[in-house]
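Workshop exercise sheet. Pairs work together: one partner reads the sequence aloud, the other fills in the structure field after running the prediction. Swap roles for the next sheet.
Pair: D.N. / O.F.
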Amino acid sequence: MGSEIEENSGNLSFFKSRPIRIDILTAFTGLLVITVLVIILYGYHRNSKAVLEISEDIIHEVRELVIKEATLFLKPVSSIVRLSSTLAAGFDFSLPGNEAFETYAITVMKEFPQIEMFNMADEKGNFMMLKSMPDDTIATKIINRNGTSETVMWKYRNIIGEVIKTEETHEVDYDPRSRPWYKGAKKKGETHWTDLYVFHTDKVPGITASHPVIADDGKFLGVFGLDIELGRMSDFLKSLRIGKNGIAFIMNGKGEMIAYPGISLIRASQEGGLRSAQVEELGIDWVSAFYKKYKNSQANRFTFETNGKRVIGTLVDFPRAFAGDWKLSIIVPEDDFIGPIKKTRQVVIAISIIVLLIAIGCAVVLSHNISKPILHVARETERIKDFKLEGELEVDSYIREIQILNAAMKRMKASLRSFTRYAPEEIVREVVTKGREAILGGEKREVTLLFCDLRGFTKFTEKTRAEEVVTLLNDHFDVMVRLISNYRGFVIDFLGDSVFAAFGALGADPHHARHGVRCAVEMQLERLRLNKENRAEGLPILEMGIGLNTGACVVGNMGSTMRIKYGVLGHAVNLGARIESFTVGGQVLISAATHEIVKDHFVTQGPFEVWGKGIGEAIRIWEVRKAKGEPCLSLPPVVRGLEELPKPLPVTFRLMRGKQIDSKSRPAHLTRLAKMGCEIRSDQGLELFSAIQLQITEGHKNKAVPIDGKVLRADKEEGTFIVRFSPLDAIQTEVIRLILKISFPSAYFDEKGTKSDM
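Structure field:
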């Protein structure tokens, strides 16, 4: 039972969702089949109807022809028998012999070949018969009952009518007075047509038209009769062509056969002789079926089936003026008329099947050409649903709608790819793959936050063309964002030249802290690589600092129903931003929470304690140096190559608090110097990561040149502090180079301040 339900469900699912090529092929083939069938059936119906109408005309013509022929065959006999009886009364109606009337009869029989025999009989039983012989001669039979003994004499003539032989016998086996033709005419007193019977002499079926011979005084003298052998009618019916297999036959109201194309079939044996066969005795199936149908319906025209074939049957009564209750029957197989049409239909069907197969082949090709591009587009939508946006679908189709659909698909993919640049790819992926609208809401989750900021970029933008600024910044972001994505992080926001990213926010990532720190190290190394390329191309050098913190935050969709943004909120965000603010170019600083998680995987320096704005307690931070066991993931020192000056150089400095610079200058001495940093000695206590501005006059026309920097190492007991310079401009770089050149005349320092031995 369960399997049946599953099978039914499968069938229903197919009807609800099926390939378009099936619909195209089904519709095309169905319409073609329906069209062909309609044309064939309509043509067959119309042609059959037309042919059947023609067949009715043919049958009508045959019917009229047969009746006309029968009329021509019988009507003269009716006139002759009346005329002959009148003449016989005028003659000396003496039997058995009457030479004058015998001559008259011979003349009439030659003129009317349908008359088989001339008969004259009187009340005594005398009888004279003239009979047409098979060799077209005429013989006379005379029965004489006037004497004491009865005699029968035959006179035989040649073709020209001369008596060439006579025969006489006393064996008389015929009495005309007992025959139906004699008795009927005597009884009716007028022309009488006998029923069908078998002639006594020739044993063939026929009929007799007889008329009484009445004297002028009204005395009944005898009967004059004319025998008509119906074999001639059968021969005529046999000569008719009614279709290919149609036949016509004549029967009477009793169902006795009068004429049939096969005359031998219409005689039946009976006790004492022969009789006319009944229709059903012919043993011909379709004739018997016709007669049975007629008896049941009494219709004059009908169709019936026999032996799997349809047959048209028509029956019409002969005129009542002669021959009694005769009926002309015509039966024709329907195929005789519409058979050629059926064959034509079969040929048309065969041709149609061939055309249909060709058309189906064309439909298959057409449906393939239509469905294949649609299938490609459908599969592409499935790929888009799974957020697989790489690559472009190239659909080769001449169908305009598919071209429009393909173009729309490309635009949608491009839009989604672009959208992932505005929103985290994972969020876009979730919206697309699950098919749900983004809704406001969030959840608390432990994440690692990364803040990255370019150093001195604002000053750089003031002196550089906007196009160059945008190009450099986009190249920088492209590399950094790709690295962040590689480590399962996502960029929450771009803040000018800064990047704010999170790891472990979109989904469960037990190693989000390690991924974040490792990503930060690779970002710094990639920035060094980009700087080498920039230096080779004469482009400015960019530096960045990165700070990371790990902690619990609220992550999710934030904003309004009009505009939603995926964001991260919490104290950990503020702390991460503060840690980044302590960094210098090339440096990665991490919080205590992050350090606790990754300390077994990275080499760090620290801790360093600092105080940050908005943070109510000291912040402990570590500087990441390298990944353990991976020499390729090692960061260079942020201040390297410090050279001990032969003589400390007096300088001053001012403290920088946020965007403001203290107006008070404090004295100090420059004791060591490198191209990106220095060591100063001062009795003014400086806090770690304090921002200061050095004022250096040496080597620049006694004019003070300000250089911003940040304290990275502080030894308050010794009063020494390591300062990392912010990115230098050309003047600042030249000042550093001149100081080094003056201090170390035996060494060569290039325009960047890089030392090499002379």
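Discussion prompt: Residues 76 and 624 are 142 Å apart (CA to CA). What would you look at next?
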